[in-house]
Amino acid sequence: MLAKDSLLRNLKSGLTAILLTSLLLAGCSPGSKENTPEAKPNDGGKGTSTAIGSSYPLNTTETITSWEILNMNAVTFYSNLADTPFGKALVDQTGVQVEYIHPNDQQTAEQFNLMIASDELPDVIEYDWTGRSAGSYPGGPEKAIRDGVILELNDLIDQYAPNLKKKLEADPTLDRMVKTDSGKYYVFPMIRNPSGLVFRGPMIRQDWLEELGLPVPTTIEEWEKTLIAFRDKKGATAPLSVTYTGGNFEIRDAFIGAYKTSNSFYVDDEGKVKYGPMDPQYKDFLALFRKWFAEGLFDKDFALTDTKALDNKILTGQTGATVHLLSGGMGKWMDAMKEQDPKFKLVGAPYPTLNPGEIPFIGQRDFKYNPGPSKAITTAAKNPELIVRWLDYAYSEEGSLLYNFGIEGESYVMENGAPVYTDLIKNNEKYSLQQMVSQYSKPNGPYEADERRNWNTFPEQDEAVKVWAKTDAEKHILPGFLTPTAEESKELGKILTEVSNYKEEMFVKFIVGKEPMESYDKYVEQLKKLGIERAVEIYQSALDRYNSR
């Protein structure tokens, strides 16, 4: 009971747990949004164009402040992006000094909320502004603009971002993704390449399967049999484990999708928006994981498992299966074990279904616009033109090479007109490709990912993408960049905050056995009282408007 209570307590966040955020912001005085909310987006920087210039490096002595997550692999080497080879090269090539403020990876949402509430903002913030999830800006971009937090970018892009403007004009689909229904651009977007849309899924120890004479599981029944074998014959203390960070259960829709529902909002076969955690069949998923938890098949400490904890469980043989990233998971772990245990092998497993031969209802598949690593300019920015020109560099040919491949002659060379990683990156004796890439380039951020960039170091990774892509996800995933109206956003923000907190609290209680499954109907009724049906209506309207853009 004490262990279960500990799990629940650790899921509850409060201001007392995040007051240390102020230390991250100390010494940074980007200006208060209170002083600038009425400023017109294209007023800042007027009359400075000639002084700054339009070619790189720009002529400036100003420093930009940027709030963004530091890649988890880069943390191995540096505590600040400015100190990395990429950060230094970006200054050299753009002429712009940047002061980076990095939130704690495990408390990003809390620290973001505290920063917004403090009324002290940096010049740019790399974050999810869509308002869709509990971690993104409540109410979405229309509300963020109306609240005087970020700037509308239409005029700024039109005047000072020729590289991004060209890409938006050439791709109408992308263009409608990165603006609101009222036509307001609000971020400099992360643009995925077509081969980078699928990068997460179920993975399992192939060497254990071979040793036990078991096939790669495809159904829930096969998965249970496999996890039992891992527990009983391999001594795995957490046969299946996943990260649970920032209120996000990183199993996403694996296993949940077997019951033709989702762990969040989704689109059903008739094109209607639904909220998975209130579906009748979602109860079946909870019952399954409650059973697996009780039987020691699912990690007893799942609610406390962050990235470092999962790394340890995978690499020490405590865990034989998970749902995680292609490079930051499968590639990283196989690389770490290639000398210590040459037999160690992970392979991608299909998203589980209830019956053999079924096409998985849903899985991980993203859109070309990635909201999370996209940058918005805040109303605290004193020189928006400088910031826009700095951001636009990433979409230029030279900037794209830096953001994707790093520094020519060090991290990559040109061969037959194409960038190719050097041995320093791909054959480093001490560090993985992912670790080296994180120092010399920006794995995620506001730029267009290059189709020629491939971080896979094992054939199993290439095969995993093919396996994970065989789902109906494209049909059922709700776009993460819908934009409710300002009025809807205000209403939605309140609903989602309360719904998400309650849903996560009950999710853990159901799984660990502190809440009887007979309470499921009461749980659904409480979701309705908190306004979940209204949230579904808002998203349906937003989806309809998006489809009509």
TrEMBL record:
Region Disordered, as annotated, extends over 31-55
Q: Which Pfam families match?
A: SBP_bac_1
UniProt keywords, alphabetically = Cell membrane, Lipoprotein, Membrane, Palmitate, Signal
Task: Tell me the SUPFAM superfamilies matching this sequence.
Answer: Periplasmic binding protein-like II (SSF53850)
Classify the source by domain of life.
Bacteria
PANTHER family noted in UniProt: ARABINOSE-BINDING PROTEIN-RELATED, POLYGALACTURONAN_RHAMNOGALACTURONAN-BINDING PROTEIN YTCQ
Question: Which protein is depicted?
Answer: Extracellular solute-binding protein
From which organism does this entry originate? Answer: Paenibacillus lautus (Bacillus lautus)
